[in-house]
Amino acid sequence: MRRIAVITSGGDAPGMNAAIRGVVRAAIARGAEILGFLHGYRGIIANEAIPLDSKAVGGIITFGGTVLRTARSKEFQTAEGRMQALEVLKENDIEGLVVIGGDGSLTGARTLFEEFGFPVVGIPGSIDNDIAGTDYSVGFDTAVNTALSAIDRVRDTAYSHERVFVIEVMGRRNGFIALEVGLAGGAEAVIIPEVPYSLLEICDNLRKMRQKGKRSSIIVVAEGAARAADIKDFVQKTTGFEARYLVLGHMQRGGSPTAFDRVLGIRLGSHAAHRLLSGFTGEMVGVDGTKLVTHPLSYVLSTERTVDPEKLHLVTAMAV
Ligand code: F6P
């Protein structure tokens, strides 16, 4: 294989640029040519190809977002769209594709591989960290640290005004971010979609803590579990404590990647390029502890990655 391409697709994640750099420089070091398509699958269909050389990825590791831009393509979900994508890949003499993205993007890669036998290797890139087959997805660590610094600031004002603050973080289907920042930020409660919760119980705990002298509290809620505004109203009405809420939203997806995400991106990017150029296909690269691993996309996409319930117990155990 002498000519490959790379895309970023779906929600952007800090560290995607490090992954692009890893793919490009590892491919070039092996004597391969590499192109990027802008805007993920949509850009393949529209033939938005750009040549990538070593210089093109110089200095990008410090930037959040993705220099290749990204999109969620409806067209690629149709058979015609995928046929068109395959034609464009062929026209550009592309023999293999590296896809950096979350579960939707990796599903696209698997489809290219299963429908047409087109060689693909995926890299998990998503702040949600909900992709099986890897302990970490590129972007999660930065998003957690961004949310954490916001929570630390909110805690100052919550303390001063003796208020309850409900902070909504991203995570449509899971609570990986919520649990991590909740634990790291010393939250009094964390609400996630995977685990049933009782708001009455949470209010009861807040009252008990207040009786013991704790005059402010933080509740972290994953967006997929409930709306922060609703939780705030309920808590205020039930406990009588003054409450406020904050939705962190897309700020969690931006910013310069942490060292962890840069190193992860570079390692996974380089590994993905080597695997693809060595003839491996239909797989995703990831990390198991500190080790690089690969898993078939069929396994990755049919396996649910679950939060560690021990972390949730720890949140409760620490809230006294
Ligand atoms: O999957 C990443 C993610 O940031 C989710 O946490 C969030 O729910 C979603 O993307 C937001 O998507 P959009 O950018 O399309 O609003």
Question: Can you walk through the features of this model?
Answer:
This protein has 320 residues and is α/β, with parallel strands linked by helices. The chain has 2 domains: 3-139 and 257-300, Rossmann fold, CATH 3.40.50.450; 140-254, Phosphofructokinase domain (Rossmann fold, 3-Layer(aba) Sandwich). The chain is 43% helix and 18% strand. It has 11 helices and 11 strands. It has helices at 16-29, 40-45, 79-91, 103-116, 140-161, 176-184, 199-211, 228-239, 259-277, 297-302, 309-318; strands spanning 3-8, 33-37, 49-51, 96-101, 120-124, 164-169, 189-191, 217-222, 243-247, 283-288, 291-296. A 7-stranded mixed beta sheet has the order 3-2-1-4-5-10-11, with helices on both faces. A 4-stranded parallel beta sheet has the order 7-8-6-9, sandwiched between helices. Helix 1 (16-29) links the parallel strand 1 (3-8) and strand 2 (33-37). It is elongated. The structure holds 6-O-phosphono-beta-D-fructofuranose (F6P).
In short:
With 320 residues, the protein is of the alpha/beta class.
Helical content (DSSP H or I, runs of 4+): 40-55%
Ligand species: 6-O-phosphono-beta-D-fructofuranose
Overall average pLDDT: 98
Order of helices and strands: EHEHEHEHEHEHEHEHEHEEHH
Summing up helix and strand content along with how strands pair, one would put the structural category as alpha/beta
Q: Summarize the biggest pleated sheet.
A: 7 strands, mixed
Q: Which residues form runs of ≥5 with pLDDT under 50?
A: none
* CA-based shape: elongated
The percent range for strand residues is 15-25%
Which architecture of the largest domain would the CATH scheme give at its second level?
Answer: 3-Layer(aba) Sandwich
In the CATH scheme, the class of the largest domain would be: Alpha Beta
Strand order of the largest sheet: 3-2-1-4-5-10-11
Distance between the termini: 59 Å
DSSP summary: helix tally:
11
- Computed Rg: 22 Å
